[in-house]
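User: I'm new to structure prediction. If I give you an amino acid sequence, what do you actually give back? Let's try with this one:
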Amino acid sequence: MLYPLLPGFLDSNAFSESGALHVPEDVRRVLHICTHTLRLLRVCQVHPQIRQQLFAYILFFINALLFNLLMERGSGGTFFHWSRGVQIRANLDLLMDWAHGAGLGDLAHGFLLKISTAVNLLATPKENLLQMCWKALRTEFRSLNAAQLHHMMREYEPQHSCADTWSPSSDETLTSADILESFDDHPPLVLPADGFTLELKRPISDRGLINQLHHFLSVIRTITDPESSEPPQPVSAVPMEAKLIKLEVHPKARLEVGQEPESGSCDALNNAVTHASVSPDPSCLLTPPNTPQNLETRHEEDASEDSENGEEEEDVFVLELQRSACGLGLMLVDGQETPFPVSGIYIRSVLPDSPAALSRRLREGDRILAVNGRSLAGLDYQTSLELIQMSGDKPRLLVARSHSAT
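Assistant: Good question. You get back a string of structure tokens that encode the predicted 3D arrangement of the chain. For your 406 residues, that looks like this:
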């Protein structure tokens, strides 16, 4: 939006015929964009440091674009003169006044220094310039490097130029590549460490925000793969070649959403999952039901090796964690965003030195089946996440092991 408007700072005249100052149209539109951008950032409660860094980049872009455009326009000897400098200075002052009013004055002075220095040179009366030698020019306009200053003085109204006086010293090397500003030297984006208005430990209760998030994710999936109705399968915590976990659930042992289970229901479900002999429920599998037979064979071979080494582990187990000030230390992912078309909560990663890491039992790719005896089967990702976040200081998790993570 700024790109087609910024040349107006060089071309438009802020002075009317009567000499009064007014805001040219292109300059007014640039100020309008900056005003609405700042207002939107404040309404959305964007972190103050992020706001500062965003406007630092905007001002960096304005400076680099205007300076490079000024250098290109100056080639030919007709653009660099006093009246042009005064005209551009007036337009830049309008932007500086806006920045001061928005509390961004120091930021604007720092990032607009290059273009301001070049314009100040042009706005200097030529009688004063003719009395200055190269060393004095370098001192007065020190923000310009030798190549930039020499380019401007060489193209400054040739009929008044002083080629000998305005020539660089012998120890200064001039290259044309140093004249233009690089857009690659933009300020970095540094994530703040504190001062947030969003409490990460508090569950999101705004249903409108959740709906907007789901809509946003669906739009991303459509853009990523417009010809497919299925969501994309990005790289996830669970590998594509996962081994088949033989989980079998008896219908009577399944927990229904919305019902409060009896005492020891997690242990009962654990035993039922391990020992039942009916066909496996697809919602409790960590791999698709029609996984190729060779994967199952590979799992059986690996399982026999683990058994021989005495390292065989439970496929389903119950684990109680002590929540710390930083939470449980689990990075979770929706099953629909993994290679497995099974809705559920999977462990994407375990944060070091967290309660989950100290338990030494939870691994990347494990699936959380129930929390405090309440089954997560059939629940959407956001609801399941809220149940885990609100599960108290000592939540009991029913976890299905993913041996693919070992």
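You can read the tokens as a compact description of the fold. Here is one thing that stands out. The chain has two domains: 8-185, 237-405.
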